[in-house]
């Protein structure tokens, strides 16, 4: 203790944070000192640890469920090889499966964002119908590929913006807001088209849908789908926006207290969904060469089903985009098998409903314990 003319000083010697170890750290440090002579060591991750970490990052933490979906796909391939050996495994049929999956697959990417964020969007099919009708109306007025693409995306974004404003700032329940949009968009598409099919006569658009059209041997629509998947995965797993999205879906109040602008985050969810609907509507125009008010029928059911069996929790806060993609492939393959074996579409709808129920029951049993991205 230091002293001065006025008496002993009140200053006390200060200890650094390392001078008072906690019991756990002290014991660990003593043991480490005995074994290493006081040197601090760090055990590097093993090769298996690095591989498992990379796999978890790729699959968003839902690796086990995703492997299960891969197993289901392999089982469906086996069934197809047995029931329709000459048709199912042909290259042309596999291209058909991927092409058909691409349109609903893009919609499912947007739906995955919405459900992870704690919302729901029942209007995706109607938005696709409205966008195809509006864009093909431009096509009949000699607008080219760029005009059709711009119109489709603009309609999708506009509808998504309205959904987002109603949910985030109007404080409407997502189910009600998007249900109202579904009815309005269907009615507007019928009003614009007059119930007639709008046929596209733009060669630059139709050429993208030709079976002979390939880029490195891959159909253009499949390439668009893959690009949307990659971009969506990067946003969910590699950006601050993605982390905030999971926080919003897991606990909105905690997200608000953490400084996240909850209303703006919710608004962007429906913008993403609307953007995906706009892209999907353009792809549907390319695929069918037309637009009609019945397009996108039950797309909301197909997208939600794919998201659920892919492992995304309906209450939000957990999900994987890779799982949703696998879910789309499972449902599209089932549809293809039914078509090849001349089974009625009613049976397919029953099977789809049963798969959704089973997937939800599995989620309830697992309790949604893990958070994935």
Automatic annotation (TrEMBL):
Highest taxon of source: Bacteria
Compartments reported by the entry: Cell membrane
GO molecular function: transmembrane transporter activity
InterPro entries assigned: ABC_transp_permease
Listed Low complexity bias regions: 19-47
Membrane-spanning intervals of the chain: 64-82, 94-115, 122-139, 145-168, 175-196, 216-236, 267-286
Pfam families to which the protein is assigned, alphabetical: BPD_transp_2
Renumbered residue ranges of the record's region Disordered: 1-54
Keywords, sorted A to Z: Cell membrane, Membrane, Transmembrane, Transmembrane helix
Coiled coil: none
Lipid bilayer topology: Multi-pass membrane protein
Listed CDD domains: TM_PBP1_transp_AraH_like
GO CC annotation: plasma membrane
Record's keyword annotation contains Cell membrane: yes
Official protein name in the record: Ribose transport system permease protein
Species this protein is from: Allostreptomyces psammosilenae
């Amino acid at each position: 203790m230091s002293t001065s003319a006025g008496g002993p000083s009140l200053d006390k010697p200060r200890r650094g944070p390392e001078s008072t170890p906690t019991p756990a750290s002290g014991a660990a440090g003593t043991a480490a000192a005995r074994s290493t002579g006081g040197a601090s060591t760090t055990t590097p991750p093993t090769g298996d640890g690095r591989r498992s970490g990379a796999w978890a990052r790729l699959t968003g933490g839902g690796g086990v469920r995703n492997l299960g979906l891969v197993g289901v796909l392999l089982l469906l391939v086996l069934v197809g090889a047995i029931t329709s050996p000459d048709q199912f495994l042909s290259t042309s049929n596999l291209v058909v499966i991927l092409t058909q999956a691409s349109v609903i697959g893009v919609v499912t990417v947007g739906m995955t964002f919405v459900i992870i964020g704690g919302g729901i969007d029942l209007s995706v099919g109607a938005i696709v119908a409205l966008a195809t009708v509006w864009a093909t109306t431009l096509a009949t007025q000699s607008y080219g590929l760029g005009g059709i693409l711009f119109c489709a995306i603009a309609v999708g974004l506009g509808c998504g913006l309205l959904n987002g404003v109603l949910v985030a700032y109007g404080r409407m329940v997502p189910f009600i807001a998007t249900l109202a949009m579904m009815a309005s968009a269907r009615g507007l598409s019928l009003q614009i088209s007059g119930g007639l099919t709008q046929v596209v006569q733009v060669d630059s658009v139709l050429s993208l849908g030709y079976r002979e059209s390939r880029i490195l041997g891959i159909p253009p629509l499949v390439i668009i789908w893959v690009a949307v998947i990659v971009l969506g995965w990067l946003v969910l797993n590699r950006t601050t926006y993605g982390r905030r999205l999971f926080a919003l879906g897991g606990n909105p109040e905690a997200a608000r207290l953490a400084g996240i602008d909850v209303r703006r985050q919710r608004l962007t969810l429906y913008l993403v969904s609307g953007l995906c609907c706009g892209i999907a509507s353009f792809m549907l125009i390319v695929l069918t060469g037309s637009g009609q008010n019945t397009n996108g029928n039950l797309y909301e059911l197909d997208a939600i089903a794919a998201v659920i069996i892919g492992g995304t929790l309906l209450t939000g806060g957990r999900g994987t985009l890779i799982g949703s993609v696998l879910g789309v492939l499972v449902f599209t393959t089932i549809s293809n098998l039914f078509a090849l074996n001349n089974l009625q579409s009613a049976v397919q709808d029953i099977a789809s409903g049963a798969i959704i129920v089973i997937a939800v029951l599995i989620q309830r049993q697992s309790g949604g314990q893990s958070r994935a991205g």
